[in-house]
C-alpha cells in the first residue's frame, strides 16, 4: 500500500517539508511543490535537521507547477493561509478524483474554503503543534514538538466521529514517532486551538514578545485570559461548541511553564512575511459579528494587527 | 504687580521651562526647581529656542530643593505625572499660605491629587497644547503650538465658572502671545482632552507610529473612534459630562490633517522615560469600573501599555 499511495505536498516549508519527508522516510511516494527553492531542491535534494536525528533525500520529486505533478491520493496543504487565494488554481490539477486534501493550516474556516473547491467530502483537517522552520534552500529545521490533531471535515459543523479516512492518516504516520490525535469533532478542535492562537499569536506581534515575556506580566496574563473568554463565547454562539474554562486555564498554564517560544505569527512578522490574521483574528471577529455578539478585545487586537501587517 | 508676584516652576522641562521663562520675560519673578540640570543652569542660565524667536536668561533663580526656594504665590506644576508620588514633599514648602498651584499636567484626577495636599481651593488646572522638549542641559526647544486652556478646580466636579483667579492667569500671559482659553468647567476640559490622549498617546506607543500613520489606516481610525466613544460614555457615567460626537469627529479630523506628530507618550517612550499611563488610561479604566461600565478597548490598550512600560 505504501508504495501505491501518492502524496503531494503543496507548500514545502517548515511544516510541509517536515511531515512530507517523514512520510517519504516511511516509503511513501511523495511529491513536493516548491516555489523559490525549486531549482536548489531539484538538484540537491531535501535535508531535515531534527533533535530526533537529521536525514536527507538526494533525489526528491520536486515541482514548480501543480500541472507537472502526478495526480495524488492525498494533498498535504501546508501553505500559509495568506496564499489561500491561490487554492482554486493549485488544488484541482494535482488531486485524483477520489483523492482528498489534508489541510495543515492555521485558523478557522480552512476546510470550508477547500470544500468549496474540491467538494465537501474530500477534506481532512490537521492541527499541527510543531516548531519547524525552513532554514535555507532545501533545509528544514525541526526544532521541537510535532504532534498533530486530525479530524474529518463535515459541512455545517456536524461531528464526523472517527472516520476510516482519519484512521488511515494515523496509520500513515505509524513508525514516524509523530503522535497523532484523532478528533471526533474537527470544529471543536479548530476553535480550541484559537484559545492559544488568538491571544499569543496576536500579542506576540503587537508587543514584540515571546510567550514567557507575555505570560510573566500580570496585565497580559489577564488580557490573554479575557481574549480566551471572548473566543469561548464566540464558539458557543456561532458554532455551538463549549470550550470549558478548565481547558482555557490549562492552555494558559502550559503556555506559562513552557520554554520561551515565538508563536508562528511572530516568526512570520520577524521574517517580514504577511501575517495570518484573516484566518485567525479576522475569522473570529466575523463569526462574532454574524452571531450578534461583541468581542471588543479580539477586535482591538485584529485592528492593531492589520495596521502592523499593512505597515511592514 | 508683576514684580511682586513670585512664581515657582516645579519641573523645569519642555513645558515648565517654556511657560515659566515666558513669564520671566514679562517681568515676573520666576524661580525654577531643577533636577539633573541644576548645576548647568545655575552657572549658564536658561535658553529657549522657538520659531517665535530664541531668547535666554544668563542668570536664573535655580534650585535643587524646594526648601531653598522662596515661598511662591503661584507654583506652576509641570512634572510628569509619573513623579506625582513626590507632590506631598514638593508642594507645601514652596507655597505661600494664600498661594495656589497651577497644574500643567496630563490626565484626569490631577487637581484632586493636589487638592489633597494643599487644600481644595488652591488649585487651578491648565491643559497645554504644545510641542516643547528639553533639548539638552538648560536648553528648551519650543517646536510648535503653545496655547493653554485654564480652569479653576472645584470639588465633586462642580463648575467654577470664570473666576478672578483664572482671569489673573490670563492677564499674566498677556503680552507673551500665548493664547489662553478660560474654561468655566475644568472637568469637562480634562475629559475632552482625553478624546485625543486616550487613542493617540496609547496607540502611538503600542504601534510605534505618529498621528499621520495612525489616522491614515482605516482600522486604526475606526479603533481611535471606538476609543473616543468609550471615553465619552465614561465621562457621562462617572462625572456627568457630555462630550458630543461632533467634538470627537472634530478631534479626529484635526488629528488627521495636522502635520505628523509624535504624541507626548510616544516621545516619553522613545526617550526611555516612564509613561503617564496611570494619569490617562488607568484613570479612565478606574472611573469606568467605579461607574459599573465596560471600556474593553481602553482596557486592552491600558494592559498593553503597562506591559510596554514595565518592559522598558
UniProtKB/TrEMBL annotation, chains A, B:
Matches recorded under Pfam families: ApbA (PF02558), ApbA_C (PF08546)
InterPro entries: 6-PGluconate_DH-like_C_sf (IPR008927), 6PGD_dom2 (IPR013328), ApbA (IPR003710), KPA_reductase (IPR013752), KPR-Related (IPR051402), KPR_N (IPR013332), NAD(P)-bd_dom_sf (IPR036291)
Known pathway: Cofactor biosynthesis; (R)-pantothenate biosynthesis; (R)-pantoate from 3-methyl-2-oxobutanoate: step 2/2
GO cellular component terms listed in the entry, alphabetical order: cytoplasm
Residues passing through the membrane, by range: none
Residue stretches making up the Ketopantoate reductase N-terminal domain: 7-154
Catalytic reaction list: (R)-pantoate + NADP(+) = 2-dehydropantoate + NADPH + H(+)
Gene Ontology MF terms in the entry: 2-dehydropantoate 2-reductase activity
Protein EC: 1.1.1.169
Keyword NADP assigned: yes
Keywords recorded for this protein, A-Z: NADP, Oxidoreductase, Pantothenate biosynthesis
Family to which this protein belongs: Belongs to the ketopantoate reductase family.
Name of this protein: 2-dehydropantoate 2-reductase
Organism, scientific name: Poriferisphaera corsica
Gene name as annotated: panE
